[in-house]
């Protein structure tokens, strides 16, 4: 069965010193034959939305999928904007996204195909929350919603960012989604930290002549070096957060989901922290607490070979 997907992301692969997992998420959504990627929307998050849009269009060109519609979305969080400025490397060709904001593009796609579209949100939830707020029929017409966000059985380990980045960046948007009536599948740090790209694998990719693989490998090596020098001293790998959320669309068997009622803290020392109550009968989320790392790696590798 093929699932129609709209991918909402804050892509930073290609920006010096930025995370690379969103690039693998886009590549997996393009490569997986069980996914029909109908729309790509961008949002402020890992980098500013203008840079994210430019890098998304560049990566789609490398993936041979430049025909896919890309719409630029929210440039700031709903209430507490963060100043983020990305850097586009030299040599990137300037391309323009489709006319019109991401939110009407999302609501229009779902309205035209009720019950058929799964939105996969791997950045802050600003665009999704705006779609829910502006179109009262949007949430009910979704075929599904997968969110890369939260940490449910652990912590971030960072006092300055107690909540997982996507939720911490726009907790008000996360609350709107949690109160929308949509029981989304949440893929958080509990499971994404367990799926890793190792330096030897990144180097092998960098040595591969494929336009995507060599690009992704080069920036993955740079990201692992950055982590080793900053937040994960001495590490030889990086987590593949976002592609695991994409994999949840066609391979839900790779994850163990539990029903829960989830609330999010909006401010203070616990800003962005989510609390999952598995005993509350008012279920508003399905939370991933287990993952098959080997199965995911095989799925990702097999899919990327199709590019």
Automatic annotation (TrEMBL):
Domain of life: Bacteria
One Gene Ontology biological process: purine nucleoside catabolic process
GO cellular component, as recorded: cytosol
Lineage: Bacteria, Bacillati, Actinomycetota, Actinomycetes, Propionibacteriales
Domain Inosine/uridine-preferring nucleoside hydrolase: start-end pairs: 17-297
Pfam families linked: IU_nuc_hydro
Entry's Gene Ontology molecular function annotations: purine nucleosidase activity
Protein name, UniProt field: Inosine-uridine nucleoside N-ribohydrolase
Listed InterPro entries: Inosine/uridine_hydrolase_dom, IUNH, Ribo_hydro-like
Source organism per UniProt: Friedmanniella luteola
């Amino acid at each position: 069965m093929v699932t129609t997907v709209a991918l909402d992301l804050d892509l930073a692969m290609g920006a010096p010193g930025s995370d690379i997992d969103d690039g693998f998420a886009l590549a997996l959504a393009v490569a997986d034959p069980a996914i029909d990627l109908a729309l790509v929307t961008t949002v402020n998050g890992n980098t500013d939305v203008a840079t994210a849009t430019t890098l998304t269009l560049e990566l789609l060109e490398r993936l041979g999928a430049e025909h896919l519609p890309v719409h630029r979305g929210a440039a700031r969080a709903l209430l507490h904007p963060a100043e983020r400025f990305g850097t586009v490397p030299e040599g990137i060709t300037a391309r323009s996204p489709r006319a019109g904001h991401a939110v009407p593009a999302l609501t229009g796609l779902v309205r035209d195909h009720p019950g058929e579209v799964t939105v996969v949100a791997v950045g802050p939830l600003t665009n999704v929350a705006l779609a829910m707020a502006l179109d009262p029929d949007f949430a009910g017409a979704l075929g599904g919603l997968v969110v890369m966000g939260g940490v449910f059985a652990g912590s971030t380990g960072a006092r300055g960012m107690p909540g997982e980045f996507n939720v911490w960046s726009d907790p008000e948007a996360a609350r709107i989604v949690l109160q929308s009536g949509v029981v989304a599948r949440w893929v958080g740090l509990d499971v994404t930290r367990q799926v890793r790209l190792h330096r030897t694998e990144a180097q092998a990719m960098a040595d591969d002549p494929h336009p995507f693989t060599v690009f992704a490998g080069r920036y993955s090596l740079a990201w692992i070096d950055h982590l080793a020098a900053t937040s994960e001293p001495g590490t030889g790998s990086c987590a593949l957060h976002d592609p695991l959320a994409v994999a949840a669309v066609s391979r839900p068997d790779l994850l163990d989901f539990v029903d829960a009622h989830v609330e999010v803290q909006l401010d203070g020392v616990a800003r962005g922290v989510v609390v999952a109550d598995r005993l509350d009968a008012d279920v508003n989320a399905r939370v991933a607490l287990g993952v098959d790392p080997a199965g995911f790696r095989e799925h990702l590798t097999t899919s990327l070979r199709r590019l």
